[in-house]
User: Which sequence fits this backbone?
């Protein structure tokens, strides 16, 4: 079923990073209640809404009941649209993870009672089984790598955590459960020791483990760590014998708080956002289940949830700098994940040229640093939360982001853009690293270039006075040259449309690099000339090549034997045929019109040229 609803729910950031150590700074057995302002997430006509995941852009996923109330099914609430999902022939389907690009993940129970992972992409459900596992439970998905995380059950019936292709077993445990993997690769979850007692853990990226225990409740039935933020804020849930399920957060200082929504029977925290806000669900006394968002208020002891900076980025092009020093290495890819950008552009100060990155790049791109400006293009306006620490070197403190919409339009049609990127991949000969892609705008005659790496390129042009650099209908001509400056491609022409301007990116694919589609004789240069000229050509196959030169009467003046040549482009002066303006006897020819003919066993073509003295 689909419900279309409009919400005014705030946007939160959920990008998780590495956590390297933990200790609860709790001396009293009394655990204080965290001070939150709660908002309920509701869908009209739905009485059971178990919100289990969220992303940076105010979208949600989780579990609900089928229309007849007989079956548990998964749901997404994306851009205000509520949609349910039921894996075919399953007993139940659940979502527990949601990425920034709208990919949801969880697991389903088959007709035999076994669990399999399930991933929602582009509106379609697909099954995911961890290699060699009897059962697979998915609870997390990495925005950085797309890696899934959760639990598996092996053939011996032992439960292990997994993240990507990695199997995780806490040393000495009888069962290890995984939940969430963060941007740096730290995995959180729980394990059961040899005495049957549950503990939380963080598996750090270096492979070490940190254990988390709840000191006030030694008689626990279970404890699960759900999530951890950039600044070290942890969310987990636990249940003691003869008690209700309870949820907790741990501040970066190590102080422990319980989370309780007033009026609820139980409150379950499933996700903690970068700004300290929490996502989850609660039950009421009448048996209904609702999703919630909890915004943190100042704690009684004055502690906060870490250093944060909130900003609003407009639809289109924005110029920004990093207001806080990130706690981990930040790249163009992670900035794009945080903002939802279609491209990230920076200035290479040393070479005085703009460098671009797009999400289809094969790498993470350039590092994001302080005291530098970055251009990002957003398909939709976004509220963004930056987390980190204050810049310690005051000479390096960047200015706050300049957040001004930089694409102007009329009735939703984009008119112009002050920054633009042409990116794509090259197909052809195997090794293309170091090749150069040159892009020329036919209308403005402006040129931008980009070196190729891993067969990918991204050429950028920017006008920092916010004037248009490209318009709808512009024709962009692309040429590829090798590391010696030799042309190795046809001239590709692409037309810019409104969708390209909206994304500030024209994505292309360049084929047959290094091999022309057809043999061709090109115009000599210079022309007219005196006394020498170069005759460019291209070959679609290996063959012996010669160029014959005739006067207007058809008399052969000179034959340039070029020998056996491989298929390719022979266009620059180092590779083109050369004529010094002399006949076969070495005498300078007279001024006038001449004809030159490219000859191979399977191809001939003739063009004219003019020598003036």
Assistant:
């Amino acid at each position: 079923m689909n419900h279309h609803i409009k919400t005014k729910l705030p946007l939160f950031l959920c990008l998780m990073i590495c956590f390297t150590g933990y200790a609860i700074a709790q001396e009293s057995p009394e655990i204080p209640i965290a001070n939150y302002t709660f908002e309920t997430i509701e869908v009209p006509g739905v009485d059971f809404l178990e919100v289990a995941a969220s992303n940076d852009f105010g979208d949600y996923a989780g579990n609900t009941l089928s229309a007849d109330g007989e079956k548990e099914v998964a749901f997404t609430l994306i851009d205000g649209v509520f949609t349910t999902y039921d894996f075919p022939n399953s007993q139940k389907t659940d979502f527990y993870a949601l990425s920034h690009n709208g990919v949801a993940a969880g697991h389903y129970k088959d007709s035999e009672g076994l669990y399999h992972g399930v991933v929602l992409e582009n509106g379609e459900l697909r099954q995911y089984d961890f290699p060699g596992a009897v059962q697979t439970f998915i609870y997390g998905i990495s925005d950085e790598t797309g890696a899934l995380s959760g639990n598996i059950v092996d053939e011996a019936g032992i439960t292990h955590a997994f993240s990507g292709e990695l199997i995780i077993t806490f040393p000495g445990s009888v069962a290890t459960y995984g939940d969430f993997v963060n941007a740096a690769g730290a995995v959180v979850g729980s394990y059961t020791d040899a005495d049957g007692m549950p503990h939380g853990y963080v598996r750090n990226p270096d492979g070490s483990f940190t254990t988390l225990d709840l000191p006030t409740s030694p008689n626990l039935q279970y404890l699960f760590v759900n999530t951890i933020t950039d600044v070290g804020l942890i969310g987990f849930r636990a249940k003691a014998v003869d008690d209700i399920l309870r949820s907790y957060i741990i501040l970066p200082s190590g102080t422990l708080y319980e989370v309780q929504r007033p009026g609820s029977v139980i409150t379950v925290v499933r996700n903690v956002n970068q700004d300290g806000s929490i996502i989850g669900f609660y039950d009421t006394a009448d048996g209904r289940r609702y999703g919630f968002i909890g915004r943190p208020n100042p704690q009684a002891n004055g502690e906060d949830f870490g250093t944060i900076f909130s900003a609003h980025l407009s639809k289109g092009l924005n110029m920004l700098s990093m207001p806080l020093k990130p706690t981990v290495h930040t790249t163009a890819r992670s900035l794009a994940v945080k903002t939802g950008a279609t491209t990230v552009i920076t200035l290479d100060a040393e070479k005085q040229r703009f460098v671009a990155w797009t999400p289809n790049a094969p790498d993470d791109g350039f590092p994001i640093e302080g005291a530098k400006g970055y251009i990002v293009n957003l398909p939709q306006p976004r509220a963004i939360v930056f987390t980190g620490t204050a810049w310690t070197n005051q000479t390096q403190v960047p200015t706050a982001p300049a957040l001004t919409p930089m694409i102007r339009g009329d009735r939703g049609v984009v008119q112009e853009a002050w920054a633009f990127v042409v990116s794509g991949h090259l197909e052809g000969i195997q090794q293309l690293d170091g090749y150069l892609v040159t892009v020329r705008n036919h209308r403005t005659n402006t040129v931008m270039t980009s070196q190729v790496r891993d067969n990918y390129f991204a050429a950028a042009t920017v006008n920092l006075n916010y004037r248009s650099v490209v318009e709808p209908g512009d024709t962009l001509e692309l040429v590829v040259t090798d590391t010696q400056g030799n042309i190795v491609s046809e001239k590709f022409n692409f037309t810019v449309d409104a969708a390209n301007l909206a994304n500030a990116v024209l994505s292309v694919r360049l084929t047959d690099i290094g091999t022309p589609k057809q043999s061709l004789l090109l115009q000599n240069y210079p022309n007219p000339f005196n006394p020498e000229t170069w005759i460019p050509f291209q070959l679609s196959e290996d063959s012996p090549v010669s160029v014959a030169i005739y006067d207007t009467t058809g008399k052969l003046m000179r034959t340039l034997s070029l020998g056996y040549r491989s298929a390719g482009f022979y266009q620059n002066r180092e590779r083109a045929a050369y004529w010094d303006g002399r006949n076969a006897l070495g005498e300078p020819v007279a001024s006038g019109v001449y004809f030159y003919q490219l000859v191979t066993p399977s191809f001939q073509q003739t063009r004219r040229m003019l020598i003036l003295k």
Q: What stands out?
A: Helices lie at 332-339, 498-503. The chain has a mean pLDDT of 86.
